[in-house]
Amino acid sequence: MTAPTTRLPALGRVFRVRAGVELKEFFRQRESVVFTLMFPVILLVVFGAVLDYQIGEGVTFTQYFMAGVIAAGILGASLQNMAIGIATERSDGTLKHLAGTPMPKAAYFVGKIAQVVAVTVVTIAILLVVGVVLYGIDLPSGSQWLTFAWVAVLGSAACTLLGIAVSSLAKNGRSASATVTPFALVLQFISGVFFRFDQIPEWMQTIAAVFPLKWMAQGLRSVFLPDALAASEPAGSWELGRVALVLLAWVVVGLLLCVRTFRWRDRADG
């Protein structure tokens, strides 16, 4: 008799199950939830309370800061979350185990992407609610929401791919946070998250312009600030076309880096 063949589940079902696993694992880890979701909210509350002043054109610093803190929240949900999480899973053998199962390897990345999307949406929603309720933030209107959406999507995609690539820099799971967090904080300081970008030294602006966070924050400022404040940007305008091109370029670069650097095994395993 011929042995019965075992039918593998449909690919779509595998992707959905893996996405569910990633979401459950994330939201069951209190430290990750607090740091990733609440840290940008804490920044908004603290900076909004301390730096409550007008920056011109009837705009408060909190209104200006809203774009930066959302960009920082996206960075945390994508780059930091991916880099630290994947490095930890590589170090504890999770990736090695998954690579040895019949699960398509693509399902692992689909699950990670689903996690980033969910965390990013929740983070942005919380920040917008807190900003409106506590500080009377003026929300985007009309077509500005479309700009908000594509900047957030491209920025999140670029930072997610960069985070997957950066995960290979950490020697092990214990050193991942120490490797990634300082890099992310420096990017935030020089990219116009905590300060007005035109008040940052030019050499720092030049460095920031290499990375996606600066462009994501600039694109988001275009929907939270009046057009009159575009004059304070380095080029004197929001440069939305360049924002799109740079973020798309980082998506391509990030994808190439992932292909070249991603490892399923820890360095110690060979």
TrEMBL record:
Name where it's found: Cell membrane; Membrane
UniProt keyword Transport, yes or no? yes
Q: Name one GO molecular function term.
A: ABC-type transporter activity
GO process annotations (BP) = response to antibiotic
Report the InterPro entries cross-referenced here. Answer: ABC2_TM (IPR013525), ABC2_TM_bact-type (IPR047817), ABC_2_transport (IPR000412), Nod_factor_ABC_transporter (IPR051784)
A GO cellular component annotated for this chain's UniProt record is: ATP-binding cassette (ABC) transporter complex
Q: Which residues form the ABC transmembrane type-2 domain?
A: 31-265
Highest taxon in the source lineage: Bacteria
- Membrane-topology annotation of the record: Multi-pass membrane protein
Principal subcellular localization:
membrane
Give the record's keywords alphabetically. Answer: Antibiotic resistance, Cell membrane, Membrane, Transmembrane, Transmembrane helix, Transport
**Segments traversing the membrane:** 33-51, 63-88, 109-135, 147-166, 178-197, 243-262
What is an example of a Pfam family matching this protein? ABC2_membrane
Family per record: Belongs to the ABC-2 integral membrane protein family.
- Would you tell me the protein name for this molecule? Transport permease protein
- Source lineage: Bacteria, Bacillati, Actinomycetota, Actinomycetes, Geodermatophilales
